[in-house]
Design brief:
There is one protein chain. With 231 residues, the protein is of the alpha/beta class. Helices cover 32% and strands 26% of the residues. It is built from seven helices and ten strands. The chain has a six-stranded mixed sheet, sandwiched between helices. The protein has a four-stranded antiparallel sheet with strand order 2-1-4-5, covered by helices on one side. A hairpin with a 6-residue loop joins strand 1 (10-21) and strand 2 (28-39). Helix 3 crosses helix 4 (127-139), helix 3 (110-120) runs parallel beside helix 5 and helix 4 crosses helix 5.
């Protein structure tokens, strides 16, 4: 379990988040007063119609995009008003991200892609970090593919590498944006099993955006984004 995590601690708090995008004469509101609290170790799913703003919400919660208005707290620290670069520096040790499109570096092999997450966090890539990366790949079922080029891996294998990369800095929160969206049904189920098992086993909070009602039902709390608000 992530060290120093209190089970009742609110790791992430969002209050009255608002976000609009330019559109014709009037801005188009996407988030219209979103409130959310994520406790340590809990799993939450977010569903909603296509175009409802689920990915935008995840991006704002994780500091990949800035909200127009509202409060965002990570481990009790206010994040609003910080630049994207300052948020990025803070995020590396707080949030691990799994994207639908994997976002692996094609010129790197599996273990190098996992280690890239540690490099971004400014960690020195010593023997201990390399052992950690190899151990994570072993845990996601890719111990035999450490040196395989990412371009030679299947979609399911690439997403497993992405899950290992999300965990390399031992973040207390993992955010997954449609992590099975590019996978066939059986492969997607295997990746979802893995994601749920690893996050629960290490006491991490999971915020899952998914269109799949069965996957959503597996989380401790199920929310829907509708007309810019969580329900």
């Amino acid at each position: 379990m992530h060290s120093g995590v209190n089970k009742m601690e609110h790791l992430l708090v969002a209050r009255a988040l608002r976000k609009s995008f330019p559109g014709g004469e009037e801005p188009i509101p996407v988030l219209d007063g979103v409130d959310l609290e994520i406790q340590a170790g809990e799993s939450v799913s977010i569903r909603g119609e296509s175009g409802s703003g689920k990915s935008t919400l995840l991006n704002v919660l994780s500091g990949l995009e800035l909200a127009d208005e509202g409060e965002l707290l990570w481990q009790g620290q206010a994040m609003q008003g910080r630049s994207l670069s300052r948020l990025a520096a803070k995020r590396t040790g707080f949030i691990g991200f799994v994207f639908q499109a994997y976002y692996l570096a094609p010129e790197l092999n599996a273990i190098e892609n996992v280690l890239l997450g540690a490099r971004v966090a400014g960690r020195r890539i010593d023997a201990g970090v390399k052992d950690q990366a190899a151990s994570l790949l072993e845990r996601v079922g890719l111990g035999h593919r450490l040196r395989h080029a990412s371009t030679k891996l299947s979609g399911g294998e690439r997403q497993r590498v992405a899950v290992a990369r999300a965990l390399i800095n031992d973040p207390p929160v993992v955010m997954a944006d449609e992590p099975t969206g590019n996978l066939d049904e059986s492969t997607g189920l295997a990746v979802m099993d893995l994601l749920m098992e690893l996050t629960a086993g290490e006491g991490k909070s999971l915020v899952l955006v998914t269109h799949n009602p069965e996957f959503a039902a597996r989380t401790g709390r199920q929310l829907t984004l509708h007309l810019g608000r969580l329900q």
